[in-house]
Amino acid sequence: MTAGVTPAFTTVSVWHLLNTIAAGVALGLMLSPFLYELAVANGIVAPAEAVRSSCGDTPAEWAAVRVGIIWGLVTGVALVAGQVVRRQRWVVPDVVLDVVALFLSLTLLKYGFVKVLGTQFPRLWANLDTPPAELTPMRVAWQFFGYSAAYQQFLGWGEVLPGVLLLFRRTRTLGAFIAAVVMLNVFLVNIFFDVCVKIGSGSYLFFALLLLSQDADRMWQFFVAHRPTALRTLPATAARFGKRGRVLYRGLGVLLTLGVIGLTAQDLQGIREYAASQKSVFPYTGVWETIQAARWTDGRWQPLAPADSAYPTRAYFQAAQAVLRNAARRDRFVTELDSARPDEALLMVARNESNDFAEPRRWVYHAVQPDSLRLLGRWRQDSLKLSLRLNRNLMK
Question: pTM to 2 decimals?
């Protein structure tokens, strides 16, 4: 017997061949960033437009998905042709599914703990103080999930649980079932609220459904036909290898599982450090109302009327987030202290609702009194000098 195959062609069913193609596509999606870079480097595809963004669904990511799916389909069809020609059922799809389970586990654990520690959906005063009709659908969803810390943690544990179950073969089906339910909800939220991570959530849902489909017949018998389910008719993956192959397969499985646990621990530490760093980026956190504003025009500072579109009625500084707004404008920023002048200057990086970044702009700040602040900087095309007063009533 050749290591990694079974000699009986009758075991190569149509289901197994379709499963092989699906496994190839899953592998292509997991490798899509690498495959895309490789294709660009070799001139096979043209590089997509580069954007500075902390969000997903960028042109490069869409291009990478297309490359990954095409590569996966070609690989899957090649494996199917090989099995038909050799009249043998190969173990390659089963090994790929093991990798898919570990990859999905790592992903769920990472995103789950981000929610458990309350860093994915911050509860921002700027959003609470803005009518939902003025927010984008994504901001509405983020504000809803982040309003209650306990609910956000519930969502997180709902991802951590299947992530843990997917690490073990005996609980993989249960983990895939829970993951499919969770990721279906995440994917639909991303679709209906136009959240810019549709590629990722759609891929993870596909991975969960692919893993779950391996027991589709048995689940049908149990949940629909109300009949006792039979034991698996196929031997364990390791049993299809020779003696050395089994040792290698099991050894790699243990190493990869430990790798997932180690990477999760590393991610958890990084999430904690990020959460700590977000607590006091700007020393004057709060909701500030503008009491006086001036714009640099014709070589001098000229007063601005509150009705002017360049007059920010309120400025919100919370963690590493900032918002300037009035009746006509609402702009979001990522902030960090200027390393050269941390006691008097703040870097504000404008970002749109797709989280595309602009170049940072320096704002100089000075606290006149504990509840009074002066800011000097550039908002869109205007250089502004602002006098602000803290509004504690909106900081709840």
Answer: 0.86
